[in-house]
Design a protein that fits this description.
The protein is an alpha+beta fold and 444 residues long. The protein folds into three domains: 128 residues, Immunoglobulin-like (Sandwich), CATH 2.60.40; 127 residues, no CATH class; 107 residues, Immunoglobulin-like (Sandwich). Helices cover 26% and strands 35% of the residues. The strands form three sheets. The chain has a nine-stranded antiparallel beta sheet with strand order 4-3-2-1-6-7-8-9-5. A nine-stranded antiparallel beta sheet has the order 21-20-19-18-23-24-25-26-22. A hairpin with a 4-residue loop joins strand 10 and strand 11. Helix 5 packs antiparallel against helix 7. The longest helix is centred in the first third of the chain and has 31 residues. About 2% of the residues have low confidence.
Amino acid sequence: MKFRGLLAAVVVMAALGGAVWWSEKKEKADAAKPPADATPKILNIPEDQFKQIQLVEKSGTTTEVSKADGKWQIVQPKPLAADESSVTSLVSSLASLSSDRLIEEKPSDYSAYGFTSPSERITITRKDGKAQTLLIGDDTPTGSDAYAKVDGDPRVFTIASYVKTSLDKTSKDLRDKRLLTFNSDKLTRVYLTAKGGPIEFGKNNQNEWQILKPRPLRADGLQVDELVRKLKDAKMDTSGSDEDAKKAIAGFSTGTRVAAAAVTDATGTQQIEVRKDKDKNYYAKSSVVEGLYKVTSDLGDGLDKGLDDFRNKKLFDFGWNDPNKLEIRNGTAQATYQKSGEKWMSGAKQMDAPSIQALVDKLRDLTSTKFLESGNGPAIFEATVTSNDGKRTEKVSIWKQGTTCLARREGETTVYELDAKAVDDLQKAAGEVKEFQPPKSGKK
């Protein structure tokens, strides 16, 4: 009896073990299967295998892009530079194209879905020469989807309307829309002719923008950088019709010139001219691409500037690099402050750092309200600031002409008109610099 009981237990344990094994095997198999509600893939092509894409609309308009030497180029309807990000986005949409749902496995009538004359035919050629053609048919009755199939595959799917839109591209959408293609990091010269006459910008030994023409002047680097950005971002508007293209030609031809600009980098010089018509529309012509194009008012307004817009209005250039040394003459009082490590010293005396910082801030913020060509007078305040580890020394003298405060940088002819209150605040900060006082120890 005991033997029978033991045998029965072995049988039960074997059955249980088999059940557990089968259950685990089934779970693994089920996990490997796609979910029951997963939408079937229409295309599954590795992005790095795309060699060529041809897009043919129902009208017959054909756009073809091809990859050579790692870069995409438009080859139809005519050779054009392609916008890498736009083509890459198209490739990404096609590479792993999923359906919304499978409509029919083997329909008897493809014309019912619009495949007799598809709205778009997209042929993808891989690096190995193999090709697949995607057909986009009619929209579904609700308009939220469109029918799609791969040529040679009998199945009919639907894709979302936004997916269809992402695939509906022409050369206008895929072309490089930049009017200038220079490298901002490699610029050596920038030229602008707008208000008042031509201006030339270049970089000094400290890699800072300077005005070279009409005469050497300090430049506001932020304003020159903004000009460069406007030129870099200048793009043609390709969304218009053929009629809009004709308007661009007429608008440029009859328009008033707003500005002409040029940039020089390691590859050479590129030029652009912007004009404005009577309706305040802006049009541009570039040396980089053929044609005349409508452009944004942001570009037109950004180039419509004169010399004073680019001049540096700050009296000191040390910027956010704290000085190493200050030499101050405030009326009859004179003082020299030298930085030693983290401490400010005046001779053997340690100075109060916050009061020195207040003076430095006032010097840093000293800004001209107007540029004058001449003027002079006895100085009421002088400051010599040494910064950049002793490599930069700047001296500014300030005097009064009636109630107006004027200043000049040493070595320059330009006279800077200053806000009188800013000068009062500067003199006050200079007068309030004091010696360092160690904290008093508490008494019990």
